[in-house]
UniProtKB/TrEMBL annotation:
<dbReference type="GO" id="GO:0005886">
    <property type="term" value="C:plasma membrane"/>
</dbReference>
<protein>
    <recommendedName>
        <fullName>Phosphatidylglycerol--prolipoprotein diacylglyceryl transferase</fullName>
        <ecNumber>2.5.1.145</ecNumber>
    </recommendedName>
</protein>
<keyword id="KW-0808">Transferase</keyword>
<comment type="pathway">
    <text>Protein modification; lipoprotein biosynthesis (diacylglyceryl transfer).</text>
</comment>
<comment type="similarity">
    <text>Belongs to the Lgt family.</text>
</comment>
<keyword id="KW-0328">Glycosyltransferase</keyword>
<dbReference type="GO" id="GO:0008961">
    <property type="term" value="F:phosphatidylglycerol-prolipoprotein diacylglyceryl transferase activity"/>
</dbReference>
<feature type="transmembrane region" description="Helical">
    <location>
        <begin position="83"/>
        <end position="105"/>
    </location>
</feature>
<keyword id="KW-0472">Membrane</keyword>
<keyword id="KW-1133">Transmembrane helix</keyword>
<feature type="transmembrane region" description="Helical">
    <location>
        <begin position="225"/>
        <end position="248"/>
    </location>
</feature>
<dbReference type="Pfam" id="PF01790">
    <property type="entry name" value="LGT"/>
</dbReference>
<feature type="transmembrane region" description="Helical">
    <location>
        <begin position="15"/>
        <end position="35"/>
    </location>
</feature>
<dbReference type="GO" id="GO:0042158">
    <property type="term" value="P:lipoprotein biosynthetic process"/>
</dbReference>
<dbReference type="InterPro" id="IPR001640">
    <property type="entry name" value="Lgt"/>
</dbReference>
<comment type="function">
    <text>Catalyzes the transfer of the diacylglyceryl group from phosphatidylglycerol to the sulfhydryl group of the N-terminal cysteine of a prolipoprotein, the first step in the formation of mature lipoproteins.</text>
</comment>
<keyword id="KW-1003">Cell membrane</keyword>
Length: 264
């Protein structure tokens, strides 16, 4: 892994920033494909990609600062905007990115749930999978020591090495990226079923949150918060419970009004 790909003069081009930007661009491209395929709203995708991408970056950074690394950043406030150093929480990025998307759909009178099903859910999880590549290259979102002679050995320049030294660590970020790809495929399959409006996006939230809850047991970049659980696990449990309720509610509502179709 290489944190710095090359230099332009004295300016380092970081793998983290480049791959993170690529994840946003490719997720936007995938969203455009899905919208174009459906025949609705594709003209809005470039603008939404910019707004939701920027909101996602802000949300991911603030979530990491306040929920994961506040003990450090409360003494280094000027470093909070330094996103190129790493330290981005996916849950915060998705939350603020979704909020920006909802606001955009309301302003432009777009069916929010239908848009989320057709465009947002598959594109978001694909972007997350690519984003985990950035974490691997940067040496963050790492696992705790495996306790054996297997695992990832990080270079001395990474945060993972600074925390655990030359110990093999669980490939938490790698496995999460692979699971994200599986979720992406499952969502595409579920889209072909006779689902109710909103259920694809809700299923995305449930599946990712479930995977994230269990993967947190392998993460070693921050400690527990309450009841032996980490902040990401508490967030995941909340999303899972709300998601199950909404999934059932949307299904019952569709059956009641007779509005259940493949793509709504």
């Amino acid at each position: 892994m290489h944190q710095y790909l090359f230099y332009i003069g004295d300016f380092p081009v970081r793998a983290y920033g480049l791959i993170l930007s690529l994840s946003i661009i490719l997720a936007t491209g995938a969203a455009y494909f899905f919208a174009k395929q459906d025949g609705r709203w594709h003209q809005h995708i470039p603008d939404m990609g910019i707004y939701c991408g920027l909101a996602g970056i802000v949300g991911a950074r603030l979530w990491d600062v306040f929920f994961f690394d506040w003990n450090y950043y409360q003494h280094h406030l000027l470093e909070i905007p330094f996103v190129w150093q790493g330290g981005m929480a996916i849950q915060g990025g998705v939350l603020l990115g979704v909020i920006a998307g909802v606001i955009y759909t309301k302003i432009h009178k777009i069916d929010t749930w239908a848009f989320a099903d057709i465009v947002a859910a598959p594109a978001i999880i694909m972007g997350q999978a690519i984003g985990r590549m950035a974490n691997l290259m940067n040496g963050d979102a790492f696992g705790h020591p495996t306790g054996g002679n297997f695992g990832i050995l990080y270079p001395s320049t990474t945060l993972a090495y600074q925390v655990y030294g030359n110990q093999p660590l669980w490939p938490a970020e790698v496995w999460e990226g692979q699971i994200d790809v599986i979720i992406f495929v499952l969502l595409l399959i579920f889209r072909t079923t006779n689902h109710a409006k909103g259920q694809v996006f809700i299923l995305y939230a449930i599946l990712y949150s479930t995977a994230r809850f269990f993967l947190e047991y392998l993460r070693g970049d921050y400690g527990t918060l309450i009841f032996g659980l980490k902040s990401a696990q508490l967030t995941s449990l909340t999303v899972i419970l709300i998601g199950i309720i909404l999934f059932i509610r949307q299904g019952r509502y569709a059956e009641r009004i007779g509005l259940r179709s493949k793509e709504n």
